[in-house]
């Protein structure tokens, strides 16, 4: 449901190999390629990691010569654009289609009708098949817009097909209009159009909004109708559908595709239930991206039934058969079955539907997949042994290294040749050259990138930063579990030490944040305000100037990531262990030669394995420790504060407005979260270990050859996190499709 593709022009030129030719040709016309890049819009059709992963995956599929289509929604408005005003996040609409999108092609001839609401009409045909038809439904026209996805050094051009909601016959109801009821006459236009109007910002606590459910059915129904009709037009035999089609659902957002395929096979193709079910399960794979229980999608029954009556009937039947199957087996009593049921607590549980209706369920990093299998989804993994597997995320080195860091890519070419561009595993060949000039060269390039980022920071925030300081960067969505709070606590402590004249061993540091908060997530917004407040105080204090600068860059998006990541010395990956499913920013920084400051969470565990303990800085509670506290209690945040004078100082400074605030009690939400609400993400618990880890970095950084060596090892070992590897594993283990 999300594809966070970023700007396309440069990616097209890289993948088609036309960059040099185009650059030359434009030069004759007096046009700089860079200026064209500037004009290319950055479509914000995703929230964060999940949407960006989908974009990396379609790039890798085309590059591995796998025929594949991305199916999504052509949102009229992407994720909101963020302004920072007086330290507060302000959201403004992302009207990205104001300038026509030159990369899309409208395929009006492939439009489909998606049916909402209505009544079900059932007849037993003489042939023993139950014929089901929907009557008095609301038709919505789904029109596809295709964006080409060319592979790197490959003949293949795949498609990202984004569906736009329009109204059939323009939706204008002349009969209502002539009766003088203008509002009613345009009502259908506004409701139908509104389906693809705007991307929902991720709140990870889905609230059962009707429009969101409409969006989910809208694009899955259009997408499935399209897949099926193309298969049949090409002469495919319906009974072999699963042998020629694999559908991977990106979290549960498209999980309605499962009952929708059942509907198409039974109601429109005339198959019986058992045959349709076997084909459906063999077709689908489900990727889970979160273990936060509150983030799992659930739809209220009354809403679901009313909007999708036929789909509801099918879900009920899937569940009836599933529950019957469970109850036949030993060890499945009433309680356990109730916990596993697809329908329960007045809702349809989309994760359960996705698990039951797929032949593969995967997590996105080894630790995450293990937690799913052995803890969160244990009931299911015991019932379906073999269904559960891991596919560690990856990133496309074409965008995140070749595109974002051309100087480094050039240095790699000069060192080991260009083979790594097609096969990023070959980056390991750099190892032999690390101490023969490569680490120095890579570090000099990093300094250039830092200087360019410093220029951007000055332009956008008027803050001057020193390119020789440690660039310590945390960029990602703002969530309490990602612990931007821990980072800013570290900053406040550093400031307090500077003020106390206690700077021995301290290395100058520029701490840089960028993050969007869900508009209704008060705590997250309060955290942004705290970061900006601390930044203002620190940056205006001459005494701190030699040691510390704090920057919050507004409106984090793919383009800003491409500027920031190549300039990072330190990559902050500090989520509470067990909470971050994988992370992918961690991999992007690694590939650009930053050293990771990490908890043992998500894919950080595998990054550590790749680079070894000497080339990563670890700290904090382990996932087992966190889970044990969660299950057995025993954590008291007040005790942490009592026992640590640094924390005591920081908490009272925040409370008393030492860093400044607009009004009294400005930061009560954050303080209550840390104290009264029990500090659920263990910020105070991990504070001491975090500060020590940062101090350790100061020591290492002062030894420049040691630090640049660490950076180079990270680059050399990053090839295993190429999304080409990830996609090859999906192709081999789940989709059963050949690849390059
Ligand atoms: C759900 C219902 C209603 C409205 C919005 C949503 C919604 C939308 C987006 C819920 C979640 C998301 C996005 C989740 C996400 O980005 N998860 C991240 O996925 C990455 C790729 O696998 C992982 O690396 C991250 O660890 C994970 O947090």
Describe the structure.
With 740 residues, the chain is of the alpha/beta class. Among the domains are: 201-391, Rossmann fold (3-Layer(aba) Sandwich); 446-703, 3-Layer(aba) Sandwich (Rossmann fold), CATH 3.40.50.2000. It is 48% helix and 15% strand. The protein has 32 helices and 22 strands. The strands form 6 sheets. It has a 6-stranded parallel beta sheet with strand order 19-18-17-20-21-22, with helices on both faces. Strands 1, 4, 5, 8 and 9 form a 5-stranded mixed beta sheet that branches. Strands 10-11-15-16 form a 4-stranded parallel beta sheet. A hairpin with a 6-residue loop joins strand 8 and strand 9 (157-166). Helix 7 crosses helix 9 (257-268) and helix 21 packs across helix 30 (683-702). The longest helix has 28 residues, at 434-461. The two termini are 27 Å apart. The site of ligand 26Q has 22 residues, from helix 4. Ligand 26Q binds at residues 47-50, 53, 200, 202-204, 206, 212, 289-290, 297, 364, 393, 580-584, 602.
